[in-house]
């Protein structure tokens, strides 16, 4: 690779190296051909993701029989042929309809690198992912629950407190690093015609949009949906109320997304 540096730029680079100082930022673009014109950078950025594989332990199976009703014979036959459901619609095999409890990073890594990956791909891959990551609302995870005429307060557990500390205790850098790794794993799991929806609010939507552009590519951005969080305005003379959340929709592959059947939009 030919490096086109002026004599002054060469002297500056040598002086920085001799004195143990970092090179000026512009040298990233002068020295490397695979440069990005726009790039999201944060403290501790690392493109590597977790590749650990943990076993999934079955804790409970809920498989209540459906109410007896007339069913479409063709659909019933198709389900039976797939081997995932019996004639009544009960699931008898496959990876669908599973609720997995645990750290989502470790779960995503195990799905990506473990034996279940083959099952997922045989069934056509993950067509749709929806996530609702933390919004940096503060460390108070408590909320009130109405039980009859009484009101009980659910206090934050240890896992929630640790998750908050690890995600937001080090500022925006720690949040971006957290969401970047998880979104990278999700992209790897998505089918080629799959899509992902990411729900966020004003606290992190600018970060997430840039992270999504970098991981999925800005050309795979499909739409931003606005979700109104209140039915009435809370404006006053001192403040303008923020009543909307954002939901970003990206495809994995150039606008191919799944809506019941493959569709190009």
Structure, described:
The protein is 32% helix and 18% strand. It has 265 residues and is α+β, with helices and mostly antiparallel strands. The strands form 3 sheets. Strands 1-4-6-5 form a 4-stranded mixed sheet. A two-stranded antiparallel ribbon has the order 2-3. Strands 7-8 form a two-stranded antiparallel sheet. Strand 2 (143-147) and strand 3 (150-154) form a beta hairpin. The chain is extended, with a radius of gyration of 24 Å. The model has no long low-confidence stretch (mean pLDDT 77).
Short description:
With 265 residues, the chain is an alpha+beta fold. 32% of the residues lie in helices and 18% in strands. The strands form three sheets. A four-stranded mixed beta sheet has the order 1-4-6-5. It has a two-stranded antiparallel ribbon with strand order 2-3.
Record the strand order, biggest sheet.
1-4-6-5
Structural class: alpha+beta
What is the molecular shape?
A: extended
* Helix fraction by DSSP (H/I, runs of at least 4): 25-40%
> Tally of extended strands?
8
Distance between the termini: 40 Å
Number of helices: 8
H-E order: HHHHHEEEHHEHEEEE
Mean pLDDT: 77
Beta-strand percent range: 15-25%
Instruction: Give the low-confidence spans.
Output: none
Radius of gyration from the alpha-carbon trace, in angstroms: 24 Å
Major sheet attributes: 4 strands, mixed
